[in-house]
Predict the 3D structure of the following.
Amino acid sequence: MQKNFPQYRILIFSSDVQEIEHMSELIHDRISSPKITIAANFKSVCKIISAFNFDVILVCINHTDSGIEILDFIEKNISRAGVIVISDIMAISEIVDSKNADNSANVFDYLPKSELSSLLLFKSVIYISEKNKFHIKLKNLERKYSNLFEMNPVPMWIYDLEFLKFWRVNDAAVRKYGYTKDEFKEMTLKDIRPKEDLVKLEKAVGMVRKHKKLFTNGIYRHKKKDGTIMYVEVVSNIIYIDKVKYGLVLANDITETLDYIQAIEDQNSKLQEIAFNHSHIIRAPLTNMMGILNLVKEMDLNTPESAELLEHLFTSCNQLDEKIAEVVKKSASYPLSKN
C-alpha cells in the first residue's frame, strides 16, 4: 500500500497495551517512518509533553473523567500540536466540539473508536496536521497584530458600534486619557467627548454604521479623566472580529501642534502690523531730520537759529531711537508653550 512520506512526530496516549499496538499498526499502514512516542498513563503524558514537541497527539479515551482531565491538560500546556481524540463516548465528542468552537489554542478532531480504520486515521492525521499549521500561522499573525495594537505609542481602541462601549484599549490610551483599562470597559465614546460635541459624535458613528467598510479621519475634541480638553486627529476604520462589526480608532493628540500653529499665526499678524505701520512710525522723525539737515547746510552754524535747528535735530534723533526700540519690542518672538 502506498504510504505518505512526511515524517510525523506522533504521541499515542492509552492505558491499554493492545490498543497502543493497534494504533501503531494503523499508523504504520499508511504513514512512512512515523516517529511514535508512547505514554501509558497520565503522569508519563505530562512528563513527555513538557519535554518534547509533537505534530499530532493521539488520545484514546475509555472513561469520561480521565479523558476530560487529559484534554484539559493538553489544552493548557500544548499550543503547537493537533489532537486526535479516539473514543466511543458521546460526552467526549461534545467536549471536542466545544473546544473547537471556543477557539482553543489547539486543533481537535474526534474519531469514533468503533469505526476506526487505517484510512480514517490517516485522513485525520493529514487533516489535523495541515489545519494545525494554518492554526499556528493564524495565531502568530493575531499575536503580531495584537502587539502592534498594544505597543503602539499612539492611543488606540476598538469599540462596539451598537452601544459605543470600549471593547479594548491599548496602554497609550491609558497613559494619555488617565483611565485604567477596567474603567474604559465601563465607559462609552460619549464619556471622552465634551457634551456640546455629542451631536457631532453621533453623526460620525452613524456614518460608520451605514457601511461595511469605511476609512475616515478628522479632528475632534476629547476629554481626559481630569477634565482637560485636547484636540485629536482621529483615524477610524471598520474591522470584524468573529464576524462582529467593530470600530477601530487611532487618536493622535495634536493640541500642542495646534497651539504652535496659533502662535505662529499670531506672530505673523504682529509682523504684518509692523510692516504696515513702520513707515508711519519711523518716517516722521526721519523726515524732520532730513529737513533740518538741508537747512543747516545753507546756514552759519554760529548763529542762534543754527543752534535751535541742531537742538531740533537732536530731538528728532531721540524720537527715531524711541520708535526703533518700539518696533523691536513689537517684533519680539511670540512666547510659545514649553509644555
Remarks:
- The chain has three domains: 9-149, 153-253, 260-330.
- The domain at 260-330 is CATH 1.10.287 (Helix Hairpins).
- The mean pLDDT is 83.
